[in-house]
Specification:
The complex is a heterodimer of chains A (about 290) and B (about 400). In chain A, helix 1 packs antiparallel against helix 10, helix 2 runs parallel beside helix 4 and helix 9 crosses helix 10. Chain A starts with a helix and ends with a helix. The radius of gyration of chain A is 19 Å and the shape is globular. In chain A, strand 1 and strand 2 form a beta hairpin. In chain A, about 55% of the residues are buried. The mean pLDDT of chain A is about 90. Chain A contains twelve helices and two strands. Chain A is mainly α and about 290 residues long. About 5% of the residues of chain B have low confidence. In chain B, the strands form four sheets. Chain B has a five-stranded parallel beta sheet, with helices on both faces. Chain B is built from 13 helices and 14 strands. In chain B, strand 3, helix 5 and strand 4 form a beta-alpha-beta unit. With about 400 residues, chain B is an alpha/beta fold. Chain B has two domains: about 220 residues, Response regulator (Rossmann fold); about 150 residues, Response regulator (Rossmann fold), CATH 3.40.50.
């Protein structure tokens, strides 16, 4: 029993962090119909920068999110205004090409500037645990999870309670109608891209403590994130949360009870099974143009 | 051949009658007739771009350091050595084209191997077909040596299934009460780690060490808490992990979070990435962790210090990687055989290598008829924040072994 509870709590902790990392991807897709392949590279970029600040100045990696989040937001805004905007209205495959290009540029930049080697931030708590009865909760995971929940909460409030958030959601649901009621398409899109990129600020900072990384790690991360978003439904924030929890639990439960070899396979089997029944993903909305 | 011999005979005759200076007197003729000024060309194809570009580039550096040093020492067979290195972009097709061209069109005097089993598997077949001796620095997959090749030589100490033999032998040498009673064997599903751990498990089970846990995890595993907590519940004396890198760091971190420290911890290659490993797991916690490796910068093997200083001098004071050392050793093997045979007669070089052992910076190397090496890897251990070699004695950089491993710090 203790083993089961341990596996489930760990799965939830890991899933919460995955959810945060996937939230930016799904947000950007929801509003812009852009599959941002560079989201993984954003995470690694932030992780590297966080690692550097931690080593050079001694800033706590998770608290560093307060610095990296606005920076990533700004970077996202600039990228959208000057690069991504040029492919607006074109097929989604163009967005894959473009953002993959951005990912390669970031990877190359990190390779040149920081070298092709593994890094990981190791603050004092990175290997300590909270003990609750028989259950061990690794501190870094707990802090990461709390940060993820906080950010997801704020994101949710922004999207549902502010005018800007409502504009973003309106554009996501029906761009032409949103434009008709006076929502500026370009500025809303830029804002959504900035917000999605900013979420990588917190995600990347947490990543730097939890997992060793190197410039090319972003391939692993983007494939994991795409899996989560496809399972939950492209563009759906609650979907990303559920998809991420499924992945986290699939990892820890198969590792505990099944063969470890199956842990990756199980998750993708779940995706396939869900897509057979619900092609739009768990929470994906069927759009009117899909039905037509 | 006849022509060369008659010139040589004429020279000797002239030298005998006119004194020793005769042969060197007319350089224009000499260049055409005598080979000693003509560079000895060694053809190599390396993955300088693509998947294996990182190790491929290191291998190239290793070869270049060797060529530089041998040319400063007067060349090979008195001829300057010239490396003809081409890029195969990590592609099996290109590497075949490359070696075919090097051998049949460029007519290089010798060839040296490329990097990775994938590429050497194809490249060695080209060399074999053309009867060229093929000494390769990195390609230890078992299927390399089941093809009955006679010109193939793998210039490391052992293939993957024998990599951990040195650790098993060390355990055997311990008094019975210090040997582990129970062991756990997690390994990544990777061709370079899984055979090592599987073979170690088999050997230790034969010794009577009870297996309490074994598992194979996929390469993209990032969370190790589940594996760690299952192992911790079984309290094994020894944890032997087939770790590439991140997984090695990840497991140690998870074990620390669970506060479980085994009496012995072995990881295949992760701990050999010195600085990256110790910063990943925390320097104090590296104490006593074992690993195996083909080369160490401080190993007391012949010419090792020359290699390290030569490398640093050529490449902006960078630390040489194991891949560069392996390439250097492959070149040393070829050099030794060519020197001993006294010519570039390929069958003679092949026969000499089958019959002899060569001293390299990796230690002594010798081969089975299949080209599979007969030696032992080096057993490394982290001691006081430094990666040391503790066995075999000839290459050791430290004469103490930390056992049992102290708890996590």
């Amino acid at each position: 029993m203790a083993q089961f509870v341990q596996a489930v709590t760990l799965g939830v902790l890991i899933g919460g962090i995955y959810a945060l990392m996937a939230s930016g991807l799904t947000l950007i897709f929801g509003v812009l119909r852009i599959i941002n392949i560079a989201q993984g590279a954003f995470l690694i970029l932030v992780a590297t920068f966080t690692w550097w600040m931690w080593r050079a100045i001694g800033i706590d990696p998770i608290l560093a999110a307060f610095i990296t989040t606005p920076l990533m937001g700004a970077l996202g805004w600039v990228l959208y205004r000057f690069v991504v905007v040029r492919i607006r209205g074109q097929a989604p495959s163009m967005s894959v090409l473009l953002t993959f290009g951005i990912a390669l540029v970031i990877e190359g930049f990190l390779n040149v500037v920081t070298g092709n080697r593994f890094k990981s931030a190791t603050p004092s708590y990175f290997e300590e645990s909270f003990r609750v009865g028989d259950i061990l909760l690794p501190k870094a995971q707990v802090y990461g999870f709390l940060a993820a929940v906080a950010v997801l909460g704020v994101l949710y409030l922004v999207l549902t309670r502010t005018w800007t958030g409502r504009a973003i959601r309106a554009t996501s649901q029906n761009p032409s109608a949103a434009a008709l009621v006076g929502i500026g398409a370009t500025s809303t899109a830029a804002l959504a891209f900035a917000l999605g990129s900013a979420s990588a600020g917190v995600g990347g900072s947490i990543l730097s403590v939890l997992y060793p990384f190197f410039p090319a790690s972003h391939y692993d991360w983007i494939s994991r994130l795409l899996g989560i978003v496809v399972l939950g439904g492209m563009g759906s924030l609650p979907g990303a949360l559920v998809g991420a929890l499924v992945l986290g639990l699939a990892e820890t439960l198969t590792a505990t009870y099944g063969g470890l070899q199956w842990s990756t396979l199980v998750f993708y089997l779940v995706i396939m099974a869900v897509l057979l029944v619900r092609p739009q993903g768990l929470f994906g909305a069927r759009l009117r143009e899909d039905a037509a | 051949m006849i022509n060369r011999r008659s010139v040589l005979a004429a020279c000797i005759a002239t030298a005998l009658s006119l004194g020793l200076a005769a042969c060197g007197s007319r350089p224009s003729e000499k260049a055409a007739e005598q080979p000693s000024d003509k560079p000895l060309v060694i053809g190599i194809s390396l993955p300088l771009t693509g998947d294996f570009s990182q190790p491929g580039t290191e291998a190239r550096r290793g070869y270049e350091v060797w060529a530089d040093q041998i040319n400063k020492a007067g060349g090979l067979l008195g001829r300057p050595v010239q490396l003809k290195i081409v890029d195969d972009a990590s592609s099996q097709d290109t590497v075949v084209t490359d070696y075919t061209k090097l051998i049949t069109q460029d007519k290089v005097d010798l060839v040296l191997g490329t990097f990775s089993s994938l590429l050497n598997y194809a490249a060695s077949a080209v060399a074999e077909k053309n009867n060229y001796v093929f000494v390769e620095p990195a390609g230890g997959a078992p299927n390399m040596f089941t093809r009955g090749f006679k010109y193939l030589f793998f210039a490391q100490q052992a293939t993957a299934p024998h990599q951990a033999d040195v650790f098993v032998n060390w355990i055997k040498s311990l008094p019975a009460d210090q040997q582990p009673k129970t062991a756990a064997y997690p390994t990544q599903d990777d061709p370079f780690t899984k055979p090592v751990i599987e073979s170690m498990q088999k050997q230790l089970e034969a010794l009577g060490v009870q297996t309490v846990y074994s598992s194979v995890y996929p390469p993209d595993t990032t969370n190790f808490q589940s594996i760690a907590s299952q192992m911790a519940a079984k309290k094994p004396d020894l944890i032997a992990q087939g770790a590439v890198f991140e997984d090695g760091v990840g497991l140690v971190r998870s074990l620390k979070q669970l506060q479980y420290s085994p009496k012995m911890l072995f990881q295949t290659s992760a701990p050999s990435n010195a600085g990256q490993y110790s910063s990943g797991v925390g320097e104090a916690s590296t104490e006593g962790i074992f690993y195996t490796v083909s080369w160490h910068p401080d190993a007391k093997t012949p010419r090792n210090t020359d290699f390290v200083s030569g490398y640093k001098a050529m490449f902006q004071n960078a630390d040489p990687a194991e891949d560069a050392a392996d390439a250097y050793a492959a070149a040393e093997v070829l050099q030794e055989a060519v020197t001993k045979v006294g010519s570039i007669d390929q069958p003679k070089i092949r026969d000499w290598l089958h019959a002899n052992s060569v001293q390299t910076i990796l230690g002594p190397l010798s081969w089975e008829a299949t080209g599979e090496p007969k030696g032992e890897f080096l057993l490394g251990q982290w001691q006081s924040g430094k990666a040391q070699i503790v066995a075999p004695a000839a290459a050791a950089t430290s004469d103490t072994v930390v056992n049992p491993k102290p708890g996590w710090k």
